[in-house]
Design brief:
By secondary structure, this protein is an alpha/beta fold. It has 8 helices and 15 strands. The protein folds into 2 domains: 130 residues, Response regulator (Rossmann fold, 3-Layer(aba) Sandwich); 109 residues, LytTr DNA-binding domain (OB fold (Dihydrolipoamide Acetyltransferase, E2P), Beta Barrel), CATH 2.40.50.1020. A 5-stranded parallel β-sheet has the order 2-1-3-4-5, with helices on both faces. A 5-stranded antiparallel β-sheet has the order 10-9-8-12-11.
């Protein structure tokens, strides 16, 4: 079995490496100190097992998992307990809360060995999305997207609008347009107050609005500073009038 350790703390990586010596059939193929290195190593080595921290510089563990194309056996190793329930709900193999004992570590690794032995395919990454982990009262301040082999971290205030496109959301920003698999309802609930849903398919940044124009009787469009025109539903028009009057 091939394993990768992803943690920004060297002592934490050393501990996992030391504990893995109990398992002669597991080879550590890479150690990474941030999410960018982690994604590169995972794509290169296609490991059987990933030990993953949550709070890391550049990309956190959940943002990193959003960008992976294939499913993997994930054991979280973290000092934060608030995401444990959700981690189990999306079929993460285990959740080790630092500091963890050698015995608890062995228990987690044996779960992976048993699953692989039973050919029990894990599919957590197909449903492991940012919306599964974010707390209900937490607002987004950035969104991580992937375009080809490039990873882009978008500050939320650079985003002009969100557009629903089947099972994806088209995120249009000053840095370009990016498709991301998620739900409009999620963004509606977790975006800052300067975003508003104006239509079933559109959420717009209020700071990007230049004017509201009458298209025809009882039909309006939002015109952005960039010149783009977005449709407004009747309920969206009412909400906009209340905000900008």
């Amino acid at each position: 079995m091939k394993a990768i350790i992803i943690d920004d703390e060297k002592l934490a990586r050393d501990l996992v490496r030391n504990f893995l010596q109990m398992f002669e059939n597991i080879e550590i193929v890479a150690e990474c100190e941030n999410g960018f290195e982690g994604i590169k190593s995972i794509n290169e080595h296609n490991p059987d097992l990933i030990f993953l921290d949550i709070q890391m510089p550049k990309l956190n563990g959940f943002e990193m998992l959003e960008l992976l194309d294939n499913s993997h056996n994930i054991i979280f190793t973290t000092a934060y307990d608030q995401y444990a329930l959700k981690a189990f709900e999306v079929n993460a193999v285990d959740y080790l809360l630092k500091p963890f004992s050698r015995e608890r570590f062995a228990e987690a690794v044996n779960k992976v060995i048993d699953k692989i032995g039973k050919n029990d395919n894990l599919t957590q990454n197909s449903i492991l999305r940012q919306s599964d982990f974010i707390q209900t009262d937490e607002k987004l301040n950035r969104i991580v997207v992937k375009k080809g082999s490039k990873i882009v971290v978008l500050p939320i205030d650079l985003i002009k609008y969100f557009e629903a496109k089947d099972d994806y959301i088209n995120i249009v920003s000053s840095e370009g347009s990016f498709l991301k698999q998620n739900r409009m309802k999620y963004y509606e609930e977790h975006l800052p107050d300067f975003f508003i849903r104006i239509h079933r398919s559109f959420i717009v940044n209020l700071n990007e609005i230049k004017e509201i124009s009458l298209l025809e009787k009882d039909s309006h469009v939002v015109i952005l500073k960039s010149g783009e025109k977005l449709p407004i539903s009747k309920s969206g028009y009412i909400k906009l009038k209340e905000i900008i009057r």
